[in-house]
Write a structure and sequence with these properties.
Blueprint (H helix, E strand, L loop, with lengths): L5 H8 L7 E7 L2 E6 H17 L7 E5 L4 H12 L3 E5 L5 H11 L3 E4 L2 H11 L8 E3 L12 E3 H9 L6 H5 L8 E6 L9 E5 H15 L7 E5 L6 H14 L2 E5 L6 H8 L3 E4 L1 H17 L2 H22 L6 H21 L6 E4 L6 H9 L4 E6 L6 E4 L12 E2 L4 E4 L4 E5 L6 E2 L3 H7 L6 E9 L5 E6 L4 E2 L5 E2 L1 H8 L5 E7 L6 E7 L1 H11 L6 H5 L2 H15 L8 E6 L19 H7 L1 H8 L1
Parallel strand pairs: 1-11, 3-4, 3-5, 5-6, 6-7, 10-11, 10-12, 12-13, 13-14, 25-26
Antiparallel strand pairs: 1-2, 8-9, 9-19, 14-15, 15-16, 17-18, 18-20, 20-21, 22-23, 24-25
Helix pairs in contact: 1-9, 2-3, 2-6, 4-5, 8-9, 12-13, 12-14
C-alpha cells in the first residue's frame, strides 16, 4: 500500500498551502468553500482542541452529524491523534445513540446541530463514559456549559493548547494495523454490532477501487456528496477516494429531496448513489411517456427501442453498426440527451451500492451515456468487494472482485470474502467475530450468490431474508422488491411469504405519484388511511403488480397486496438508519393486514 494511514493519505493529497477549494457546502442559499489551507488548519486545531478535552491515543470519539465539512475535519483530527472515531447516523433515535455510546465507550461526542444536541443530552443520561459534547453550529452563551461547547469553542481550545506540535508528532506514528473506526451495522435482525476497521482496511479499499476505476476519473473532479458519511460506502468512496484523487473538490448537498437542483448547480463529474435515485429517473421518463401525446409516445418508444439495441451491442463488447449508430444519435438527441443534461451534463463516474440495481435501469442509463458501475460490499469489508468497471461490466451482476480480494461461494450458496479490506472483528463481541470470521480468515457475508464463468458475482439475497414457501420453494424477496420498486406507483415494498402458501406484499405508494393523484382527485381533506383504500389507488398499483408478476416465475409472484398509508421509517422502527426494511418489525406491526391477505 502507498500510505500507512488515513491521515498520511489526506495530508499528502490536500495542499496545506493552497487557497483552492477542496470542499464546498451550501449555507443559507450560498456556496461556502473550504480551501486546502483552511481545511488543514482547522483539522489540526480541532485535534489540539480534542486533546485539551482529554482525547488521547486509542480513545473513542463519537460523531453524529449530517454531511458537512466539520465531519471531514473531525475525522482527520481524531485519526491524526491515533484515536478512533465512531460515526452515528443523525437519524438514530436517542436510545440507539445511547446503545452505541455505551458499547463503544466513547468519551467525547461531536454533533451537528442543536436538534442533535438535545438528542445527545437525552442519551447521555444513560451513558457513563460520555463527557464533553461539541456542537458544530454556533451556540448562544445560555446553551453552553462546562461540558457543552461549539465548534468555534473547540478551535479556541486548540489555539490555546500548549503542545502545538502534538498532531504533527502523533499522526506519523499511526500504522496500517491500527484501529481507525468503529461503524455500527444497521441491525436488521438484532442489536447493532460495532465493525472494527483498521487504517489498512480502508486504505486498501481506497487504493484498489481507485486503480480499477482510474480511467473514469481522469482530470478535474466535482464530486457530489449526499449519501450519509456515517455509511462506509460514502465515507470510503465519496470522501476518502475523492480526496485520494487529488484534483477537484467535494460538493456537500444536504437536501436530498432536491437533488435535481444539485445536479444542475454542481454539474458533478462523479457521485456515489443508491439504486432508488436511478429508479426515480427511470420512473420519471415512464411518467412523461404515459402523459405524452400519441405522437410523442411513438417517438419515446422508438428511442427506447433503439437505446436498448445500442446498449445490447455495447454489453457484448462490440462496435455498433453504422446504421444503428446513426439511429442512436437521433434517439439520443430526442430523448437520452435530456437525461444526461438533467444530471448536469458532466457525469463521468456514477457508482451504485447499498442495494441491487435492476439491469433494465442500468441499460436505460447507459443509453443516456451514463455507465453506472454497480458494486457489492458490506460494512465489514470497508466496503467494496466487487465492482463493474468501464471496460468490464455485466448488468445484473455486481462485477468482479477487487485486486487482492478473494470471493468464494460456500456449499450453502453463501458468499465468503477474504482480503486486506476485511474487518478486524466486532467490537466487544468475540463470539460474533468468531461466527463471522472462520479459521482461514474467510468472512461469512450472510449473502447468497453465484460467480459466473467470467468471474462476475451475482447476488441473490440475504440468507436470513430468504423465503421458503409452504410448498418448499425458495424465494429471494429482494429480487421481487427490486423489480417492484421500479414501478411508478411503488415507493416501498415488503414481500412476505415464509412458510405461507404464496407471496403477498405490503406496499407504500410512490410519494410524487400519490401527491399528483390527491391533487387531481381533490382528496386533500382525506386521511392517509382513506386515500390508501381508494379504488383508483389500489387499481393503479395492481396494474403495476401485474407487470412485475410477468417477470417472475409463478411461485414468486405477488398474489395479494395491502396498501400501507404510513411509509416505513426509522422513527417507526420499520427502517434501519441505512433505510433497509426491518422485516421482522414490519411483519409484527402489520400482522393483522398480513393475516387478512391469507384469509
Amino acid at each position: 500500500m502507498g500510505f500507512q494511514s488515513i491521515p498520511a493519505m489526506l495530508l499528502d493529497r490536500i495542499d496545506a498551502e493552497s487557497n483552492d477549494a477542496v470542499c464546498k457546502m451550501k449555507i443559507d442559499g450560498q456556496w461556502k468553500e473550504w480551501s486546502g489551507r483552511e481545511f488543514i488548519r482547522q483539522a489540526k486545531t480541532a485535534a489540539l482542541g480534542l486533546a485539551s478535552l482529554g482525547v488521547k491515543s486509542g480513545d473513542r470519539v463519537a460523531l453524529m452529524s449530517e454531511n458537512r465539512p466539520e465531519w471531514y475535519l473531525t475525522d482527520l483530527a481524531v485519526l491524526g491523534l491515533h484515536a478512533v472515531d465512531v460515526p452515528i447516523y443523525p437519524n438514530n433515535l436517542a436510545d440507539e445513540v445511547a446503545y452505541i455510546l455505551n458499547d463503544s465507550g466513547a468519551g467525547v461526542l461531536l454533533v451537528s446541530t442543536k436538534t442533535q444536541l438535545y438528542k445527545a443530552v437525552e442519551a447521555r443520561n444513560s451513558v457513563e463514559s460520555l463527557g464533553p459534547i461539541v456542537v458544530f453550529d454556533e451556540l448562544d452563551d445560555s446553551e453552553k456549559a462546562d461540558d457543552i461547547l461549539d465548534w468555534s469553542g473547540l478551535l479556541k481550545l486548540g489555539e490555546g493548547y500548549e503542545n502545538k506540535s502534538l498532531f504533527d508528532d502523533t499522526w506519523p506514528e499511526v500504522t496500517l494495523d491500527d484501529l481507525a473506526t468503529i461503524i455500527y451495522t444497521s441491525g436488521t435482525t438484532g442489536p447493532p454490532k460495532g465493525v472494527m476497521l483498521t487504517h489498512g482496511n480502508l486504505i486498501s479499499n481506497v487504493e484498489t477501487t481507485y486503480r480499477v476505476n482510474r480511467e473514469s476519473v481522469l482530470g478535474h473532479q466535482r464530486a457530489l456528496s449526499f449519501l450519509p458519511l456515517s455509511h462506509v460506502l460514502e465515507r470510503t468512496i465519496g470522501y476518502y477516494t475523492a480526496f485520494y484523487h487529488g484534483d477537484g473538490e467535494i460538493y456537500i448537498w444536504q437536501d436530498i429531496k432536491n437533488l435535481k437542483q444539485a445536479f444542475l448547480e454542481v454539474r458533478p463529474t462523479m457521485m456515489v448513489s443508491v439504486p432508488r435515485i436511478y429508479e426515480k429517473i427511470y420512473n420519471g421518463i415512464k411518467e412523461i411517456r404515459n402523459e405524452a401525446s400519441p405522437v410523442k409516445k411513438v417517438i419515446i418508444d422508438w428511442a427506447l427501442r433503439i437505446g436498448n439495441r445500442y446498449v445490447a451491442v455495447l454489453e457484448r463488447g462490440e462496435t455498433p453498426p453504422i446504421a444503428l449508430e446513426a439511429k442512436y444519435r437521433l434517439a439520443y438527441k430526442l430523448l437520452f440527451s435530456k437525461i444526461y443534461e438533467g444530471l448536469g451534463g458532466s457525469v463521468r463516474l456514477m457508482i451504485s451500492g447499498g442495494g441491487p440495481l435492476a439491469a433494465h435501469i442500468a441499460r436505460f442509463m447507459l443509453a443516456a451515456n451514463i455507465l453506472i458501475l454497480e458494486g457489492y460490499g458490506l460494512t465489514e469489508t470497508s466496503p467494496v468487494v466487487t465492482n463493474n468497471r468501464k471496460r468490464e461490466f455485466k448488468f445484473g451482476t455486481v462485477g468482479k472482485p477487487l485486486p487482492g480480494v478473494e470471493v468464494q461461494i460456500a456449499d450453502s450458496g453463501e458468499i465468503l470474502v477474504r482480503g486486506p479490506n476485511v474487518m478486524k472483528g466486532y467490537y466487544n463481541k468475540p463470539e460474533a467475530t468468531a461466527e463471522a470470521l472462520d479459521e482461514q480468515n474467510w468472512f461469512h457475508t450472510g449473502d447468497v450468490g453465484e460467480v459466473d464463468s467470467e468471474g462476475y458475482l451475482r447476488i441473490t439475497d440475504r440468507i436470513k431474508d430468504l423465503i421458503v414457501t409452504a410448498g418448499g420453494k425458495n424465494i429471494a424477496p429482494q429480487n421481487v422488491e427490486n423489480i417492484a420498486k421500479s414501478m411508478p406507483t411503488i415507493e416501498q415494498i415488503c414481500v412476505v411469504g415464509d412458510r405461507r402458501p404464496y407471496c403477498v406484499a405490503l406496499i407504500v405508494p410512490n410519494e410524487e405519484w400519490l401527491a399528483k393523484m390527491i391533487e387531481e382527485k381533490g382528496w386533500q381533506g382525506l386521511k392517509p388511511e382513506e386515500i390508501a383504500e381508494k379504488p383508483e389507488i389500489v387499481e393503479a398499483i395492481e396494474k403495476d403488480i401485474l407487470t412485475v408478476n410477468k417477470q417472475l416465475p409463478s411461485y414468486e409472484t405477488i398474489k395479494r397486496f395491502a396498501v400501507i398509508a404510513t411509509p416505513f421509517s426509522v422513527e417507526a422502527g420499520t427502517l434501519t438508519p441505512t433505510m433497509k426494511v426491518k422485516r421482522k418489525v414490519v411483519m409484527e406491526q402489520f400482522e393483522e393486514e398480513i393475516d387478512r391477505m391469507y384469509s
